[in-house]
Amino acid sequence: MFVILIGLVMFIALMGFTLGPRTTLSWPEKFLRDTVGFVQNIFYKPAGYIAGLFEDIGNMKDIHKENEELKIALAQYTREKARFNFMESENIELKTALNFTKAQLEKNNYEHHIAQVVSVNTDPNNRSLVIDIGERDGVKVDMSVTSVDGLVGVVSKVSNFTSTVKLITTMDVKDPNTNAIAVTSLNNHKTFGIIESYDEKTDTLLMTGIKEDDPLKEKDTIVSSGSGGLYPQGMIIGTVDSVQVGEMGLLRTATISPSANFVDWKQLFVVFTPEVLE
Amino acid sequence: MMMRRPVLILLLFILFILEGTVVPWLIPDSWQTRIVPNLVYIVILFVSIYNHRHTALVLGIVFGIMHDIVFYGQIMGTYSFAMGLSAYLMGFIFQAPRAPMPIMMTAIILGSLLLDSTLFGIYKLFQLNHTSYDWALVHHILPDLFVHFVFGLMIYVPLRSQLEKISKLNQKEKAA
């Protein structure tokens, strides 16, 4: 009986200790994570290929249509690329003319590093996944992770060769480790709101703090605004489902359905932000 | 004959790897966020019934810790606590070297419910989830239970014969 009691106390102490903002891992943890990650890596990819093969056969007849759409999108992208290049060079010229410091100039100069998923934990209480780049590749805690479709989560723990990604589906107002995302609309940068919680029942994110005269409307694409620091600018998060009057009646809230689909993980991108000199 | 116990550990490790890598691909997309099969735990339950609850307790804690460290999102120790405790309790209630199949299946049903409920309880205690228990029950605990039950049925015959051999081995060692 006494042993059980001691065990219980030890476990609660362990949980309490690891719950707080703990950024570095001890070496046994790192060793175990890297070893398991290595073995998982061997299994995950082939399984994905085989599953993907069956899916591809199923999707065969949609491919022609998808190809047409992609061609149109590519043409539009090429046109806009030319315009973008002009604007970017003009922007840089203006910034140098205004004597921006080097840190200011490089503030939004992000690098996307590709990472392979090595394993997935689907536990609804703690959804996370493991990717195959770690400390050796320069990954740090709190870096954003995106898929091709949009923001997926943030790096929560890093060991030498692998890192764990905490999905945005675990976002919670009450959790002290959750950082809210400051967001704006892709089309209209006057929009401002904050996303800090995810509703499991409806699979949507909740955007709060929207002013009453805000031009936000349904079907708008929501991106991170980059103010507030942690999340880099321009990460695609989702589209607006509906806008409602908030609980207090003054501000409005919007439900956002995430654009990343949280199944069948393959490649992800870790967003490296430029180093801030202190 | 002496190789059986390391083989069991190896089997558990391989199951643990498969759980995080191959299993998510086998589950249909719309169910991927709901079903969390804990195959390692089912094998540990078998150990708990047909071998000894103390072995199951140790295995539960070790593989739970492994799960906690590899998928460390917010909190550590939940899986090791839940898996160790529920495997031990199931062994405490049902342990019998000659337990027939219905008893084993009952143990799997109750054990699976206990595991998921304990996990839910811990996350609720630390305010890391904000759903109600009845929603969680319908949404993932019961689907989980079904998958665990089917997996239990699949491995029942081969695993039981192996475990009985291990138990005999233990008895021989004690006698000697």
Automatic annotation (TrEMBL), chain B:
This is Rod shape-determining protein MreD. It is found in: Cell membrane. One of its GO terms (cellular component) is plasma membrane. GO terms for biological process: regulation of cell shape. NCBIfam families: shape_MreD. Belongs to the MreD family. It is a multi-pass membrane protein. The chain crosses the membrane at residues 79-96, 103-123, 135-159. Pfam families: MreD. Its main location: membrane. It comes from Paenibacillus glacialis. InterPro entries: Cell_shape_determining_MreD (IPR007227). Keywords: Cell membrane, Cell shape, Membrane, Transmembrane, Transmembrane helix.
